[in-house]
């Protein structure tokens, strides 16, 4: 990853924003991601904050001065977000609201697409 691109900046801003919102206000992030109301604020809040700090760390890593670190962060994000899409589908099958596929899987798919574009543009 030789240069910093608009896609890299967009991915960093989107991922970091999702992370901060999820960590600061799990209940608001649930609604924003189409998951509905949090039924168990304690347990769900912890899990949401774990997700949030992960996304914030990945988003911030995209600003690292080392191109190798930025590339590793993009590649890790692609793998994580692909698994998030799978988790969303499994969640929907287990009864999660249909809107969760748009909010969670759609967002994760966008992050995968941005990551793939970043990797492709850097070669």
Write structural notes for this entry.
The chain is globular and about 45 Å long. Helix 1 runs antiparallel to helix 5, helix 2 packs across helix 3 and helix 4 runs antiparallel to helix 5 (99-122). 80% of the residues lie in helices and 0% in strands. By secondary structure, it is mainly alpha-helical. The mean pLDDT is 90. The longest helix is centred in the middle third of the chain and has 27 residues, at 67-93.
Proportion of residues in extended strands? under 5%
CA radius of gyration: 15 Å
What characteristic shape results from the CA principal axes? Answer: globular
Low-pLDDT ranges: none
* SSE topology string: HHHHH
Average pLDDT over all residues: 90
Number-wise, the strands total 0
Helix/strand/pairing category: mainly alpha
List keywords for this structure.
single chain, 123 residues, mainly alpha, 5 helices, globular
Secondary structure elements and pairings:
Elements: H1 6-24, H2 26-32, H3 41-61, H4 67-93, H5 99-122
Helix pairs in contact: 1-2, 1-3, 1-5, 2-3, 3-4, 4-5
Short structural description:
It is globular, with a radius of gyration of 15 Å. It has helices spanning about 5-25, 25-30, 40-60, 65-95, 100-120.
